[in-house]
Design a protein that fits this description.
Blueprint (H helix, E strand, L loop, with lengths): L1 H17 L3 E5 L5 E4 L1 H7 L3 H4 L14 H10 L12 E4 L5 E13 L2 E10 L1 H67 L8 H36 L1
Antiparallel strand pairs: 1-2, 1-5, 3-4, 4-5
């Protein structure tokens, strides 16, 4: 039995000190009772600097940990890691770092002890923050690109409407002078005699006037089109 007890003691000590997670056992007064090697490395303390010291030495003062610890001591219950709280540890150097903590308790020799299993998650938190910032930057760029595309489509729509309106108005405005040119050209072909010279000159003048009218209408449309395009830019 003694050999078995010694083996169990050695096994416990080995598991305790070689665990890849910080383990701190405190008594009912909140003083550090046992601390493993990983926790010492995590908080940058020597063992003698923590044992019998208040657990609050490892927690930033801004969190006012004493009332929370007292409440847990009065109503202890096991608490798993990742309970939706942002928790921080305090290194000997004064540097804060993100942690996850699982709490448990046990009784021995009519004394209650509390166990904190502590994981350093500052690298994970940093990666999560970088990913969040990356997603926000990507979302911003997508929104900007979407807005640019919307503006381009709006301009394209306006230009399309201008073209349609131009074709509609042009077909109407050009119809009269073109009809005049067509009819006058036909009548010119019918006048062959010398005495028809006055009639020929009359229709030639009508054709010239219609051509001038077409040029004027075309200039108006081109000027208006340029103005509308400038508005869309």
């Amino acid at each position: 039995m003694k050999a078995e007890s010694n083996f169990q003691g050695i096994l416990f000590e080995s598991l305790f000190n070689h665990a890849s997670i910080g383990i701190i056992v405190s008594d009912s007064k909140g003083n550090v009772f046992i601390v493993n090697d990983y926790a010492l490395k995590m908080f940058q303390y020597e063992r003698e600097e923590l044992v019998n010291k208040s657990i609050e030495i490892l927690i930033p003062m801004r969190f006012n940990h004493v009332p929370m610890r007292t409440n847990f001591e009065q109503k202890p219950q096991n608490r798993s890691m990742g309970m939706g709280r942002d928790l921080y540890g305090l290194k000997k150097s004064g540097e804060e770092f993100s942690v996850e903590i699982s709490l448990s308790f046990f009784e021995m020799y009519q004394e209650r002890y509390f166990i904190a299993f502590i994981s350093d998650i500052h690298k994970r938190k940093k990666a999560e923050l970088e990913l969040k910032e990356l997603n926000e930057d990507l979302e911003r760029k997508v929104n900007e690109r979407t807005q640019d595309l919307k503006e381009a489509l709006d301009k394209e729509k306006v230009l399309g409407e201008l073209k349609s309106r131009f074709v509609s108005i042009a077909s109407h405005e050009f119809k009269t002078p073109l009809s005049t040119i067509s009819s006058s050209a036909y009548l010119l072909s019918q006048y062959h005699l010398t005495q028809d010279q006055a009639k020929r000159e009359k229709h030639i003048q009508r054709i010239q006037n219609s051509v001038n009218s077409l040029n004027s209408i075309l200039d108006d449309f081109l000027s208006q089109g340029r103005i509308e395009e400038e508005k869309c830019r």
